[in-house]
Amino acid sequence: GAVVSQHPSRVICKSGTSVKIECRSLDFQATTMFWYRQFPKKSLMLMATSNEGSKATYEQGVEKDKFLINHASLTLSTLTVTSAHPEDSSFYICSATAANYGYTFGSGTRLTVV
Amino acid sequence: ILNVEQSPQSLHVQEGDSTNFTCSFPSSNFYALHWYRWETAKSPEALFVMTLNGDEKKKGRISATLNTKEGYSYLYIKGSQPEDSATYLCAFPHSGNTGKLIFGQGTTLQVKP
Predict the structure, then answer these.
(1) CA distances from A89 to A80, A81, A84 (A)
(2) Which phi and psi angles does A19 have, rounded to 5°?
(3) Are A43 and B42 a contacting pair at CB < 8 A?
(4) What SS3 class is residue A88?
(5) Which of B98, B103, B105 to probe the A interface (max A CBs under 10 A)?
(6) What is the pLDDT of residues A26-41, one digit of tens each?
(7) B91 contacts in chain A (CB < 8 Å)
(8) Tell me: the pLDDT tens digits for A67-93?
(9) Pairing of strands B107-112, B10-14
(10) Residue A41: its chain B contacts at CB < 8 A?
(11) At B97, phi and psi to the nearest 5?
């Protein structure tokens, strides 16, 4: 079946630094990748949709300069949390999709900003 | 704004009990309804994609039904086992089969041995 690898699974960073999270589709070419964030006791909230080779589409309220998304190839999308602050601490998860593959999720990244 | 609601938020049952929970979604512009099973530290695992009104799908002891006219889906687990403990998510595609998924807040199931 389709597999999506997400790294790192956990990261702790200092306030003011940037953190990059990678999402790779291992055995299929993902036409679209989605980035979600989960707040405590809340559902997965979509942050942005990225298509290979084009700019990501951000959901309302998500700062595009804060959460940089790059989808340089059909198998790799990255989310960079820039100048991270404690309020950015959260669980981030990606999902990749392509025709006939449905939606396949990574295992998520727990970000803690200290 | 599309709203997908799940209830209950959490559930504790004894091993062997059967249980069910609900997902409510907008009944207009229906494409599909997805169910996922999400264990801690793992990727959400696709259980079912429901597309037709009246659909009933089954995977082992887990089954799901769909009512698109009234906008709800039920997930049933027969004879719950401790390994069924997980969060069960439903999701509604915003537009089309590869559009963004709007998730419910999930139902967290704990099965006690």
Answers:
(1) 13, 10, 8
(2) -130, 135
(3) no
(4) helix
(5) B98
(6) 988 888 999 999 988 7
(7) 103
(8) 999 988 889 999 999 999 999 999 999
(9) parallel
(10) 9, 105
(11) -80, -10
Q: Which residue of B has its CA nearest to A5?
A: B43
* Other CB atoms within 10 Å distance of the CB of residue B7: 12
Q: Does A102 touch chain B (CB under 8 A)?
A: yes
- Report which residue type is found at B54: G
pLDDT tens, per residue, chain B with 113 residues: 678 999 999 999 999 999 999 999 988 878 899 999 999 888 999 999 999 999 999 999 999 999 999 999 999 999 999 999 999 999 988 776 567 888 999 999 999 99
Q: Is B69 left (phi over 0), alpha (psi -120 to 50) or beta?
A: alpha
Considering only the C-alpha atoms of chain B, give the largest distance between any 2 of them, rounded to a whole number of Å: 42
Chain B contact for A49, CB < 8 A?
yes
